[in-house]
Amino acid sequence: MRRLWWLLMLLLFMSAAWAVERPVPVAVSVPPQASLVQAIGGDRVSVQSMVSPGQSTHTFAPSPRQLRAMEDAQLYVKVGHPEYRFEHQFMQVLEGRGDRVVVIDSAEGVALRELEGHHHDHGHAHGHRHDHDHGDTDPHLWVSPSIMRNVAVRVAEALAALDPEGEAHYRQGLEDFLGALDTVDAELRDTLSGLQRRTFLVNHPAWGYFADDYDLRQMSIEVDGKEPTPAQLGRFIERARAKEVRLILVQPGFSRRSADVIARELDIDVVEMDPMAEDWLGNLRRMGAVLREALS
Ligand SMILES: [Zn+2]
Predict the structure, then answer these.
(1) Can you give the CATH number for the domain in which 30 is found?
(2) What is the DSSP string of 111-168?
(3) 206 CA distance to ligand 1 centroid (A)?
């Protein structure tokens, strides 16, 4: 009996210690959001990205293991675009739990931009694309420093609310992150403002919010999420030629067949850039270097 009592005390003690030292479980939709949360939370958080680098958010379906991870999350940072159906699934899991969980929607307060390569008149020959909530707006919100800045502030607030003992830690983490972000942003403004050419091609239109932040333009080779037809491709090459485009960015996980055709036709470079890369700030820096190299 006495032994049982000790065992019980030990268990109680262990669970209390675990509760104190256990990092705040955070789930995010895409890897760049994970790097933001990690930078702010450090060792007080354990972050899990649902979609991996190089994967497509458009075809992603959560595994049972990921749905279970969502059962555990205290904070979920979602992209917040209706196109990403997997986020609805995660929201259902969270809503079914009934305990405390904070959800940060990256799209809150953002004026969604129109997506390039999206036809408004894709009538009834391809009518199947009309009946889902793809929308005409751009879901790739995380490539914008201005949008992510706002998300960072909300993440730090949420973490401090969930883990009040860590408040100073999160405040410092936020300050450091915003400092690094402002440095990269200033470098990008400096690098990109003087470029003669301001248009680049993409196999998948994921860089729109970045382009908007720096007064650049992306032209999407993909049409409504598909490879262009030969006729569309021919017209596209003529448009790109007229604009004297000099760079094609290809995203892993999406076909680069048409991109290679265009590159041969116009004799320009194809560079692989993954907007889903884990090292978000490092990737933006690299984007700046690639654009400067090709467009100046
Ligand atoms: Zn996409």
Answers:
(1) 3.40.50.1980
(2) -PPBPTT--TT--STTGGGTSSTT-SB---GGG-HHHHHHHHHHHHHHHHHH-GGGHH
(3) 5
Distance 254 CA to ligand 1 centre (A): 9
- Please say which residue of 186, 217, 241 terminates a domain: 186
* Residue 75 CA from chain centroid, whole number: 17
Around ion ligand 1, residues with a beta carbon closer than 5 Å are 206
pLDDT score, position 125: 42
Strands 102-105 and 75-78: parallel
Q: Output the CA 205–ligand 1 centroid distance in Å.
A: 6
Assess whether 155 and 223 both reside in one domain: no
* pTM: predicted TM-score of the whole model, two decimal places: 0.88
Asked if residue 257 belongs to a domain, the reply is: yes
pLDDT band at 117 (very low <50, low <70, confident <90, very high): confident
